[in-house]
Amino acid sequence: MNSLLSLLQPYPFERLKQLFAEVTPPANYSAISLGMGEPRHPTPQFIKDTLCSHLEGLASYPATAGDIRLRTAFTQWIQRRYQLDLNPATQVLPINGSREALFAFAQTVIDATQPDPMVVCPNPFYQIYEGATLLAGAKPYYAPSDPARNFAVDWDSVPLDVWQRTQLIFVCSPGNPTGAVMPLNEWHKLFALSDRYGFVIASDECYSEIYFRDEPPLGGLEAAKKLGRHDFKNLISFTSLSKRSNVPGLRSGFVAGDAALIKNFLLYRTYHGSAMSPIVQEASIAAWGDEEHVAQNRALYRKKFAQVTPLLAGVMDVALPDAGFYLWAKVPDALGMTDAEFAKALLAQYNVTVLPGSYLAREAQGSNPGAQRVRMALVADTEECVEAALRIVQFIQSRTA
């Protein structure tokens, strides 16, 4: 067996299952889960119809690079969204969801024959970053987010000797779980570091279309262009239809950026056997070509967050995020509970599931930046999310009165 498998830590939801193993939720409350970030708004009908009308695609092996019509759909969307002109033949590739591609990309980029390769990732973080790093033979370095700066990652805290060994850095903007969007000056800092030390930047942008401000979130490729980096050197962005179009089961997205990296990633994927089904390609072309359903989806989240956030803000340190569909809330000090104890007691008393923030982070540099926070995924309908918020308010008030 691959000895590196022993380095992997349990996934947050496995830890949550263990935490709740001896809890019997009250039967007089219906179960409401804010624990898993799985989109639950309805899948648009036109995407379903497109899938069903192209079943002849089952009879063909797909090309790993995807149909040129699909890659053109990617670049057309990029042009509309970011006003960027990319080459569909060399600067984009289809992927089977961002999770699959983030893992595979690390295997492509990391050279474990070099001494002590490092990968820098935010902390808290999406656990795929860590697993991909470890199984590629590198070591993760966890750069903490700073609550005082809207949960911006403290890149300045990364030591010089780490930067010198860094081969890859994961950026998540909008962030999971904090919802923070990285501003242009932070991108400028990372690009300068990349130029100095030669590492690749993987920009995870799967939450980019769910936002609450007037201006949509800044993307990595967009930031590169604003800073005069028209070749997107050492930069690849990852995006997906899962959250944007409510199709997590479709497993469809794309990567875009540095043509040289795209070329090598395509080589890896050819051997990896990760070609996208022709049926999924057709549905993806339809989805990327329509923005009306995306605007409707965004409006649902805005309505939901507008009702839920003020309720919780009355009893917790929590605020509307820049983007994404999570609330990153602090457990009140007055409760005298850890984040895990809070989650366990909330389920036991009110049948509401939240995810302990410490499960989404690692103890590093003397602290766990996810400790004493919980992540709440507002993915259910508005009525259910409001009901969950009211129960959380009751739970906190009952223990602090």
Automatic annotation (TrEMBL):
GO terms for molecular function: pyridoxal phosphate binding; succinyldiaminopimelate transaminase activity. Gene3D superfamilies: Aspartate Aminotransferase, domain 1 (3.90.1150.10), Type I PLP-dependent aspartate aminotransferase-like (Major domain) (3.40.640.10). GO terms for biological process: lysine biosynthetic process via diaminopimelate. Its cofactor is pyridoxal 5'-phosphate. It comes from the Bacteria. The keyword Transferase applies. Pfam families: Aminotran_1_2. SUPFAM superfamilies: PLP-dependent transferases. Residues 32-388 form the Aminotransferase class I/classII large domain. Keywords: Aminotransferase, Transferase. NCBIfam families: DapC_gpp. This is Succinyldiaminopimelate aminotransferase. It comes from Acidovorax temperans. The lineage of its organism: Bacteria, Pseudomonadati, Pseudomonadota, Betaproteobacteria, Burkholderiales.
